[in-house]
Design goal:
Order of helices and strands: EHEHE
Distance between the termini: 8 Å
Largest sheet: 3 strands, antiparallel
Number of helices: 2
C-alpha cells in the first residue's frame, strides 16, 4: 500500500496506512522529480511524502 501526501494531509495518511495494514508506516520524502508528477491522494496539491507499509 502506498499513499501520497502533501504537508497538510500527512497525519491522515499515516493514520490510514496504520488502520489498513496494522503495521508501522514507512514515510519517505519524494525526490524533486517525483514531486513534479505526483499529487496528494486527498487533494490536488503536489505530494511531498509517500507513506507505505512493508
Amino acid at each position: 500500500m502506498k499513499v501520497y501526501s502533501c504537508e497538510t494531509h500527512i497525519n491522515h495518511a499515516l493514520d490510514v496506512v496504520v488502520a489498513e495494514t496494522e503495521e508501522y508506516p514507512i514515510m519517505d520524502i519524494l525526490n524533486e522529480e517525483e514531486k513534479l508528477s505526483t499529487k496528494c491522494s486527498y487533494c490536488e496539491e503536489q505530494a511531498t511524502y509517500v507513506v507505505s507499509s512493508k
